[in-house]
Amino acid sequence: MGNPKQYFLPFRRLSQGVLLCILCLVLSQRAFGASVVLAWNPSVDPAVVGYFLYIGTANGSYSMKFDVGNYSGTTVSGLLQGRTYHFASTAYDANGYESPFSFPEVSTAIPDTSPPDVTITWPPNGAWLKKFSNLVIAATATDNVGVTTVNFYINGRLACSDAPPAYTCKWRVPAARGRTYQFQATARDAAGNVGSSGIVTATTLR
Questions:
Q1: What pTM does this model have?
Q2: Which of 22, 36, 144, 145 could be stapled to 82 by a disulfide with Cβ–Cβ 3.0 to 4.6 Å?
Q3: Domains, the chain, ranges and CATH?
């Protein structure tokens, strides 16, 4: 797991003389899929009654704000894989006065560990093929971030590759009669995750 990084907020004064003490925001080095554990050292100032957590996908710009109450940690879930999130914290008092953001902010990249889904849509399983015909093998592929390449295999050998948005492979059916061929596709995303389709079989007419 490694040691967590700690970031300290310097002493700052709020309106009406409210003084917030050192605030420490700690980001766990482990990101469990789409959730991150955050913790901070509670302020020693008795005027502090709670903390706000700010979250955004751009440095210094926060699109989400959560009141976590008077707790020294929280778990943020629902984060999308393949994105970088930025976090900052503030403390507030009973009158609603809020400290500046903790500095520097804490950032973490949520790793993309989900493989793409890929399915061969043509030919259908159990299809009959005419020898010397030109077959267009087709597939669909989706991913939580984005598909980069789809590879087509015939009897375990790479036949061709294609990129978004359409995934097809042109193949000339050999002359052999009554021969069964196995078709399979794999899809790769930018993180290197690979998903495989089921095997589709088709046989040449006798």
A1: 0.69
A2: 145
A3: 5-109 (2.60.40.10), 117-204 (2.60.40.10)
